[in-house]
Amino acid sequence: MDNVDFPCISKIIPLVDTLFVDIKHMDAQMHKKFAGASNERILSNIRQAANLHHNIIVRVPLIPSVNDNDENLYLTAEFVANCGIGKLELLKYNNLGASKYVQLGATPPSFSCVPQSNDEMESKTAFLSRSFGRDLSIFWS
User: Fold this and answer.
1) Per-residue model confidence (pLDDT) at position 1
2) What domain count does the chain have?
3) Mean pLDDT lowest for which of 22-26, 73-77, 82-86, 102-106?
4) What is the mean pLDDT of the chain?
5) I need a labelling partner for 42 at 20 to 30 A (CA). Which of 27, 28, 72, 96 fits?
6) What domain range is 75 assigned to?
7) How buried is residue 116: exposed, middle or buried, by Cβ count under 10 Å (0-12/13-18/19+)?
8) What distance in Å separates the CA atoms of residue 70 and residue 63, rounded to the nearest whole number?
9) Cβ 111 vs Cβ 61: under 8 Å
10) Is 80 exposed, middle or buried (0-12, 13-18, 19+ CB in 10 A)?
11) Domain for residue 32, yes or no?
12) pTM of the full predicted structure?
């Protein structure tokens, strides 16, 4: 659900069995700070896609001290549940994208280099499941 006009996205929706979408941050200003653009169109695209497709998995790539706090995760799960989407996947932080910056001659952003532990991921999943477990399948990888 990248920052693309929905009519472009709607063309591919009937062609896929599962639609994977990422939400980086629920706060528009934080999203803009770390992703370079507001999240408003992305969230709108997700809402519209949820009306057309019934097998959507929303993923949250967790970045320590950026978007892995309880408030952001709660707001994300609330948004996903309110859209009628049934699956939320939390992704452990990884720095695999750093090599892309180097290939482009750019400096990669400096986030924590340490991925969340399995215990942290279980804790985040349990926290969200207590509030949204009835409406969402919440898992991590």
Assistant:
1) 60
2) 1
3) 102-106
4) 92
5) 96
6) 6-107+129-140
7) buried
8) 13
9) no
10) buried
11) yes
12) 0.89
